Amino acid sequence: MANPSITANLERLAAIDAGIHNGDFLLTWEQRDATIQFVLQAAELLQDCARAGISTRLFDSGLGMSIFRDKSTRTRYAFRSGCNTLGLMTEELDESTSQIAHGETVRETAAMIAFLSEVIGIRDDMFLGEGHKYMVEVAASLDESYREGVIAQRPAVVNLQCDLDHPTQSMADLRHLIDTFGGVEHLRGKKLAMTWAYSPSYGKPLSVPQGVVTLMARMGMDVVLGHPEGYDLADEPLAAARAAAQASGGSFRVTGSMADAFDGADIVYPKSWAPMWVMRERTRLVHAREQAKLHELEQQALANNARHTDWECDDAMMARTRDGRALYMHCLPADITGVSCKAGEVSKTVFERARLDTYREAGHKPFIVAAMILATRFAQPAEALRGAIASGVMRRRG
Amino acid sequence: MANPSITANLERLAAIDAGIHNGDFLLTWEQRDATIQFVLQAAELLQDCARAGISTRLFDSGLGMSIFRDKSTRTRYAFRSGCNTLGLMTEELDESTSQIAHGETVRETAAMIAFLSEVIGIRDDMFLGEGHKYMVEVAASLDESYREGVIAQRPAVVNLQCDLDHPTQSMADLRHLIDTFGGVEHLRGKKLAMTWAYSPSYGKPLSVPQGVVTLMARMGMDVVLGHPEGYDLADEPLAAARAAAQASGGSFRVTGSMADAFDGADIVYPKSWAPMWVMRERTRLVHAREQAKLHELEQQALANNARHTDWECDDAMMARTRDGRALYMHCLPADITGVSCKAGEVSKTVFERARLDTYREAGHKPFIVAAMILATRFAQPAEALRGAIASGVMRRRG
Amino acid sequence: MANPSITANLERLAAIDAGIHNGDFLLTWEQRDATIQFVLQAAELLQDCARAGISTRLFDSGLGMSIFRDKSTRTRYAFRSGCNTLGLMTEELDESTSQIAHGETVRETAAMIAFLSEVIGIRDDMFLGEGHKYMVEVAASLDESYREGVIAQRPAVVNLQCDLDHPTQSMADLRHLIDTFGGVEHLRGKKLAMTWAYSPSYGKPLSVPQGVVTLMARMGMDVVLGHPEGYDLADEPLAAARAAAQASGGSFRVTGSMADAFDGADIVYPKSWAPMWVMRERTRLVHAREQAKLHELEQQALANNARHTDWECDDAMMARTRDGRALYMHCLPADITGVSCKAGEVSKTVFERARLDTYREAGHKPFIVAAMILATRFAQPAEALRGAIASGVMRRRG
After folding, report:
1. What gap in Å lies between CA A178 and CA A50, rounded to an integer?
2. Helices marked H in chain A — which ranges?
3. Confidence of residue B1 (pLDDT cuts 50, 70, 90)
4. If we measure between CA atoms, which residue out of C257, C213, C260, C262 comes closest to residue C233?
């Protein structure tokens, strides 16, 4: 049953006003500090409950809808199990059989999948300038439908990765850092190197690095973003990271050298992403249905990446970090040299040492999703959780 | 909790004997008046409960299976959320990986997906002369399996659109009319124009107009079916509509002029459908796997439609209706001129005024599905609902 | 509510120590007798509860994940409804969009889909030497993740058909035999003919015959395996069947004649499977992506089968069995001569007589799956069930 840590966490949670009841969770940099704090605290509490076998099924019925406009294993599972742990049945809008786009189609589809839904999770990360815009459009459609009495409750839109941010990932990453370093207060002043790394694949979204630098700078960390020339992140998150660092007393800078980023780092997050011009050009070519040119672009992008195979997180690179023992992070799956590809983001020995830690990092995601649902769908989320815990119902009976 | 309207509705519901316990819901014109009345009343009550946040999870476990032999977003969501609101987990038989057909295959598959199922929702609307027959075959197979002790309970077959009828749509449409006009008794004598409308697409099923004219004629309405030459509906629903009008004191006639249908109408339902000979020929060509001829047929059908682009519901056409303000209905998605296509079923201005109303119309469907499950799976459905409401369990706790 | 048979079954169940708490169910011949006995007894009890309308929802939340590396209708439904009857929501890992393989990919994916899961059902039956190995690898990955605190509970791996065994099928078959002959003790000394039969299809797995001969020989039955030259089963299950027969006092022999196998048989199980060399060669060609050679192999395999069209279970063959009335078994769907194909495994008249019995046979599978989950996920499964039954909650309320 509820142990002292759960009771204490519940008290802390009750003291925070998430402030997003009937709202959405789209970009961390648009959320107030209390919201971030609430989601982190609630995710920890939900994970503690799961470990203690306590049921947190706060919904007796209701749907969690998802729309995946890009493939996903890890985030899909996180969304579904996050929904399930609160009692929501999940369904997915199959876009291949039911195409949805912009304008009236979005407004209508948003209403059609909202009648009995509590949350709509969306992944739309492949096209620069589109994913976030699409989510905002869905949210506005839901607002209208709720205001006009078309739907009885306003489902939350939860960003499962867009072109700008990947908040369930970055918040899970932050939970992992808090767990690893023993509290959010210990993150202040720690150096985090978010760097590009070589991968023999093409067109990976920019939202993970963008999400990480903005959120970690906000925690007072010394964030260094490292990448080869031409692999810049988008302007909005870069500006958000700079502003966050200034506000938090942390720092944020960009370097063109992996070694510079790694020097003395407490945490490293080496990961491939595509140049923005590649993402933009691909968006254009996909819209224009230029298959031949898309193939050409892929070849060009791969050749481009191949000029930077030295951006690999190997033992030599790790030796530069604090005491040679920085925490290695990755959103998974990593491209591991000699394992999943000939040359990749990380050497086999570095990854093998960090492997279980990256699984733990991922293990926070279902609870982050559930915490976001809790924050958006309950007027008094801590009270609701307190009731569930007090009822003594277990996840597995007997 | 339960408000006076819910209590009053519950009393009304308890007074109606649905009469289809352990049965199916396939065609409205095969159902007795009391059954139609029960489903309408139950759907209203279930929607009231959802709006009041009252849980109606009457099943502690059990499956709602669906078989979609044609793509679907709206009806699929309606089926799944209707099941969920009663506590059923949904699963879909994937026909692309597990082909099912007629004869032994149907009998066997019906048993295989029935062992712990309470309802099997089927969409099979693309081939004239096949969809309804298939559902009857599934129902007969379930009868046999139940009689012979192969399955412990007899799942209801719910028609999610066949070649003859689309009862979850027409019943949701009727719920919308009752809501809009303030009671079923106010529908008597109202003029409803169910008309063909131009669309640049091909092969839309006839089941929506067939379902609407038969059900609305039964409600004592003056139903006018309008379409260009060659776009006749099937004989069985036409005969059913005539018989229903005669029995109810309403009327039913067919016209070849959209203007005639719209003149003085209280309600208009302009919507594209395919000529029967196109549907029949397509059925034949699909079975014969004649790809080239299928393409030819599509071209011919589109050219055929294109001769009637003047069948558009625009402001001029709407001006003909009662006070120029008829209720516009559509099963969605509509083909909107200048929005989803160059020229379509409805002009942008007409649709924009009606838009939220068409969403409300669609919003009845999940509750119609749930009401059909209630009617078929419970010996004393009103008592079961009364118990759920009295228990005080809410959809969202705390 | 609970009838005397349920109460008595509960007592019998409480007396058996399944011995696989926190374990897996992969191959029947690796399981102790008590485990087999527990699963059979629990499946019977769960089916009795379902027939009495008693809810056995022991999980308040939690996921049942499935991975199907081959198509499936019957086993997929059995897995999902088995999970549902215990309260687990099901999700499927979509391998077409999220490729999983061996090594690090398996270890990582296993962790990613385990965070809040209670069971992972896997079908991987197409490639000789791979399916079972894959499941063992998943199980080992889960062990590591559980040991290292990555996941809070150890989901059971349940074999939904591998290259060696198909335990949910063979255990359902055994439940059917127990029901039909009135008790496991009446199976001793009965002759069961598991024979190859002609089918105009190619590449059917060997796991059904392998699962049946090993499990039935263990029950003291006289098992005769019959097949044309070249259609031998794999060594491991053959050795397991021989050892089981010796230990149980039953017998196991192989014959090249269908007539010999059928002579005086109490039970016949005629079913097509592929020669091992075809399965091996296909595995090799698939890995090498040799499409043309795969097509050639298929043609060759079909021609090979076609030399044995006389291996059909027709009336003449059935006349050889005990009193001409052996129990006909099949895992479904059967290839029925003149129904699903021109010439197949079984004649129309033989199948028609046995048809409903084969449905009953299949009807045990959902409860076998649920019983395996019960055995692996509960420390005191009988106590847990006793609590659920005593609570008086019904599957359908009111």
Report:
1. 19
2. 4-14, 33-52, 74-86, 104-112, 131-147, 167-181, 207-218, 235-248, 258-262, 276-288, 291-306, 315-319, 348-363, 365-377, 381-391
3. low
4. C213
What gap in Å lies between CA B170 and CA C315, rounded to an integer? 51
Q: What is the bridge-based pairing of β-strands C117-123 and C63-68?
A: parallel
Residue at token pair 């008794």: B185
Kindly report the length of chain B: 398
Sole residue written with tokens 């006839």: B206
- pLDDT at residue A92 is higher than 90: yes
Side chain identity, residue C63:
L
The predicted complex's ipTM stands at 0.95
Structural tokens at position B190: 């109202």
Report cis status (omega within 30 of 0) of the bond before B333: yes
Establish, for the pair of chains A and C, how many residue pairs have beta carbons separated by less than 8 Å: 110
Q: Report chain B residues whose CB lies below 8 A from the CB of A94.
A: 73
In single-letter form, the type of residue at position B117 comes to: S
Nearest by Cα to A26 from A185, A168, A224, A149: A168
Residues of A whose CB is below 8 A from B340: 104-105
For B:64-103, CB contacts with A below 8 A are: 71-74, 77-78, 80-81, 84-85, 87, 89-90
Q: Which two tokens stand for residue C64?
A: 């049942």
Scan for tokens 């649902």, then name that residue. A373
What is the distance between the alpha carbons of residues A143 and C391, in angstroms, rounded to a whole number? 43
Task: Tell me how many degrees the CA angle A239-A244-A248 measures, rounded to the nearest 5.
Answer: 155
Whole-model pTM: value is 0.97
Q: What are the structural domains, with CATH classification, of chain B?
A: 4-163+364-391 (3.40.50.1370), 171-346 (3.40.50.1370)
Residue C26: other Cβ atoms inside 10 A: 23
Token couple for C62:
């939690």
Strands ordered across the beta sheet of B251-255: B251-255, B222-226, B191-195, B267-270, B327-328
Q: Which residues on B lie below 8 Å from C359 (Cβ)?
A: 108, 111-112, 145, 150
Is 90 exceeded by the pLDDT of residue A323?
Answer: yes
> Which tokens go with B127?
């081939």
Q: Taking 70 as the threshold, does the pLDDT of residue A95 lie above it?
A: no
The DSSP line for A22-70 is T--B--GGGS-HHHHHHHHHHHHHHHHHHHHTB----BSS-EEEEEESS
Query: pLDDT tens for residues B361-389?
Result: 999 999 999 999 999 999 999 999 999 99
Residues of B within 8 A of C47 (CB-CB) are 152
* Nearest CB neighbour to B148, from listed C78, C356, C398: C356
- Provide the 10 A C-beta neighbour count for residue A315: 11
